[in-house]
Specification:
The protein has seven helices and eleven strands. It has about 290 residues and is an alpha/beta fold. The protein has one domain: NAD(P)-binding Rossmann-like Domain (Rossmann fold). The strands form three sheets. It has a seven-stranded parallel sheet with strand order 7-6-5-8-9-10-11, sandwiched between helices. It is globular.
Length: about 290
């Protein structure tokens, strides 16, 4: 049976973990093993199956009162994920290189332009959110990019650098800026969107696959470093996402097994809700029928 390692954080500021945690003789939390059956349960995104403490409204986890920073909040994935968080009641700050509040005409939405490949821009973004709301309860990092088509020996430095900037460096900058505020609050949820290619590389996408593998390692390291502060950090690994651009570049392909942005949003919402409070350090496959 395939298993997935999960670490159990302690979100109680007193340091007393709930009955769901396991500790070794040295007092350190042991990882839990998520079986294949449990993984399927998780991917159904049914929060009540994992926690009775989450509020459910119309089948959607209620995030009312949460301040959520969503990077890459535009486009085929970012726009629907942002809308789902707004539908769940969250106060959302959406960021992209170019973004307008008109994209989500909701009183709980604020759009801030930022280039996360630049450290100073990431720092300014987080400062703006803190000035506006005083806290960041959750970070949903969607920003990234794709380039490929050449084997390793034909891949240019420009392609390599672009992938590392968009998929690894940007994540590093935003996590570095957000985590100190979450540590001070002794609470927080981080979700990043990785890729199946980060775990299962394919030919002709070396720079992309390597950058997504770096993202996975970064997020899982952050989980290990911050579980003592009540912070969870997980990465979702989707297969091909069903967006307009992917359909455009793959004409005539059977899309029935592609991953819906709505399903990705539902899983991200689960992970930053009370239902996901004991899930951290997980790289969660979301491959559909691919």
């Amino acid at each position: 049976m395939e298993t997935f390692t999960l670490a159990t954080p302690c979100r109680d500021s007193s340091g007393a973990c709930g009955s769901g945690s396991q500790t070794s003789a040295g007092g350190k939390a042991k990882p839990h093993l998520l079986t294949e059956d449990a993984r399927k349960l998780l991917l159904r995104t049914g929060p009540t199956a994992l926690s009775e403490g989450s509020r459910i409204i119309g089948g959607v986890t209620d995030l009312t009162g949460q301040v959520v920073l969503i990077t890459g909040a535009t486009g085929g994935l970012g726009a629907p994920v942002t809308q789902e968080f707004l539908n769940a009641g969250a106060t959302v700050v959406g960021s992209s290189r170019s973004i307008s509040e008109k994209q989500h005409p909701d009183a709980n939405f604020l759009g801030i332009a930022a280039d996360l490949s630049d450290a100073a821009s990431a720092d300014r973004l987080v400062l703006r959110v803190m000035e506006q709301h005083g806290r960041i309860d959750s970070l949903v990092h969607l920003a990234g990019g794709f380039a490929g088509g050449q084997p390793v020996h034909e891949t240019s430095d420009e392609t390599w650098d672009a992938m590392m900037d968009m998929n690894a460096r940007a994540a590093f900058h935003i996590l570095r800026a957000v985590i100190p505020h979450m540590r001070k609050a002794r609470s927080g949820g981080i979700v990043a969107i990785g890729s199946r290619a980060g775990m299962e590389p394919a030919a002709a996408i070396s720079a992309y696959a390597a950058s997504k593998a770096a993202l996975i390692a970064l997020v899982r390291t952050a989980a290990l470093e911050n579980r003592d502060a009540g912070i969870t950090a997980n990465v979702i690994l989707p297969g091909t996402i069903d967006t307009e651009s992917n359909r455009k570049f793959n004409p005539g392909v059977d899309t029935s097994g592609w991953i819906s942005p709505k399903r990705i949003a539902e899983l991200a919402i689960l992970l930053v809700s009370d239902a996901g409070a004991q899930i951290t350090g997980a790289a969660i496959p979301m491959y559909g029928s691919q």
